[in-house]
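Database export, one record per block. Field names are fixed; values are copied verbatim from the stored entry.
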Amino acid sequence: MADTKERQVAASGISAGRGSSRPSSSTLESVHERFVAGEVDATYLNSSLRPVVAQSWQRSLAGGVNPDLAAARAADAVSAIERLRETHPLAPALPVIRRLLVDDAVDSGVVVAVSAADGTLLWVEGDPKARRKAEAMNFVPGADWSERGAGTNAPGTSLALDREVQILGSEHFSRVVQPWSCTAAPVHDPATGALLGAIDLTGGTEVASSQTLALVRATAFAVENHLALLRATGVYAEPAARKPHLVVLGGDRPRWVTTDGYGHLQATHLTGRHADILVLLSRHPEGLSADHLAVLLDDKDLDVVTVRAEMSRLRKVIGAENLGSRPYRLLAAITSDIGEVFEALDAGDVESALTRYAGPLLTQSVSPAIARLRTQLSATLRDAVLAEGAHGRADLLRRWLELPEGRDDRDGWKALRDSAGLTAAARARARGHLAGLDFELG
């Protein structure tokens, strides 16, 4: 009971021996500036701030969070957020959260967010205007709002401490978040006590009140009771494990991403050769022999013994249950970012394909089969975007031309220049870029 009271006191901002007052915004900003500049130590910080904030700032700085970042960093779940939502154990309780919080937040300037236990935002709903403003700091589904990703903030700090937390304005570690205030409470599995995620209210200073804290706490309690009832009546289905997800597009290291039943993401970095193999196996569900795989991986007579050794090592990385032999094949269904782009293109959804396209496929690969697939994907997406541009989708053209592959795409810039409805400034920029390309090409 004492522990519960202590948590409530810390969450509401009332520190023992210091009353309920908080430093002014200008004082907080001054302390923040001096702290991130290394001019004050932990002792000064602890005497100037609420302990929950002082300790969170120290964790944020020690974790390498940049207070000047424009937004929280993206999580590995960004390209797979829909699948993560479908399998997350909080999904069955979403109607309860909407009834208790979201319905009243639609026109109140408040945003309601539900995060997974690792800080990945799953749902962000509420006032449309507030949501659009929140997008500027990447407070969107799929973004990482853990403390290590975004610094001191209510949902991230609530997850770090496993208790209710309120963060008022300039108490946030990242400057871009300091115009906002937020209140969050963790949610636990009613049977095991495992941390499932957090429920958060974000808005103006009014959301850092004791009334808001009581409301969010009550909602978390209602969600836990709802999950317990569903399980007791046999309605609740245990969350299915998300399919393994292969990330191979863009400049980041290729990754094999899995998650447990509670939405905790686990990303394993892959070697270039292992990434090549997994891409090829994902495109050949019928399987590949060692000889065929050797030819696809390297056109310089890669020997079969080397292929078999690589497959043995790969089996240890992704699990023997996922990789079969004779022929080599994937035993479990997986998803991949390259597969999602191709699927969107096949469905005629060029906008989704462009959104999911993080960049070229495995640019460091020497595999001729990967090089062919890389060219196929890029060319298909480019042609689809140009076709959409011819039908008035100048926004898609602009997004393609902002990619490294599109910067020197003369046909693309010409199509943008000739697009209807373009502003004078945008048309002038397209003309200027074309002139630069023509000059470079002589």
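Remark 1: Residues 241-405 form one domain.
Remark 2: The CA atoms of residues 294 and 307 lie 6 Å apart.
End of record.
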